[in-house]
Amino acid sequence: MDKKLTLEIIQEVMQRAEQYKDYSVDRLLLGSNEVPQELKSLVATQIEVGKKWKRKYPSLSEKPFFFPKGVNFEQASSEATAHFKSHFVASSDTLVDLTGGAGIDFLAMSANAQKAYYIERDPSLATALKFNLQPFVQRLPPLSICTNDAVNFLDLVDTGEHTLLYCDPSRRTDSGRRTFLLEEISPNPQEILRNLQDSNKSFSLLLKLSPLIDLQALMESLPSISKIYILAVQGEVKEILALIPDVHSPLKLPAEEIALEAVELSARGETQKNFSLTFAEEKKAYIHYTGTIKKYLYYPAPSLLKIGAFKRVAEYYGLDALHPNSHLYTGDHFDGDFYGSIFLVKETLPYSKSKLKQLRQAYPKADFTVRNFPLSAPELCRRTGISSSTTTRIFATTIMPAKPLFIITEPVSNQTFK
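-> structure tokens emitted (418 positions)
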């Protein structure tokens, strides 16, 4: 669609999408129907998004939400992570969303603010937000929607006593290549911080970053960070948040003293588990390695591994570790508060090529998890011919002192994480 997007056009698109919601995208685009040709692409996008909308945004499932492009929906925060971010906003704060995008984070965070500003370079997204906010206006503070560049936001906003800046930089370069390097994302957080140095107002900055970012490099590049959050939903790491509580503060923490917190969220954003540490605490933690597999096998959640809780998790839960590079733990006690998955050990088999046939005969159906092992899970499935099963899980790993091993387990009934 070439002409400028307006609220009237969005309204028609949403009506058509509801009318043809049972059509496939191909049928809508290629078939004969009453949708004007210039609107077909937009209507098709809404139909495609509508199929995923309820799963990603359960509490918003009955609200009409418009996305100019499918990629806007795919890149938008989930309801769970947006809800978590709303807790960073105090009722006396001015919120400035520097990279408004689809507005999911802005909708959740602005509800807690005294006033809020949405800044977005793309006019289509800004117009879409005006439409999307209509059902929520009564419960939101005074809002301003600005089509502009995030770096120049100071000229656009009337900041209050304290302002929380939220920034979700684009992780694509000008050539379209995906990136998670701090120096390549846009807007650049370091440039934003430089532009704030001459201001006498109070600013905090909350950054949303790729799960792939190197935490050590992040802390060294932005030493004014006080805390980093690793957010996971249903066992999958979704986002990393970095908080700078005062952009003018001279306090610069060494990387090993910056707090790291892994947080497991429910689909609606409630915190189910959390675990905090610093690199200094991890370095000092006591860990005992064993070559003996005990009654239970403990498998840490991915968010725990992302913060580097390898020794500290063993110390905290009173577990033995199998190997420095395996990140699996064992114990005779069952700890229902463990941040991860727990498996009951049925038996162990030393790894050798001759054992693969024996493994298949004993366990024709099982799922493989590989940690620090010479073969991948697909290779083990192919070589053994074992088919998938949810009742038996075989851990292919290495235990001390460098001994490859199969650990056959079954999941404990109240297992929480993937």
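The CA atoms of residues 66 and 128 lie 6 Å apart.
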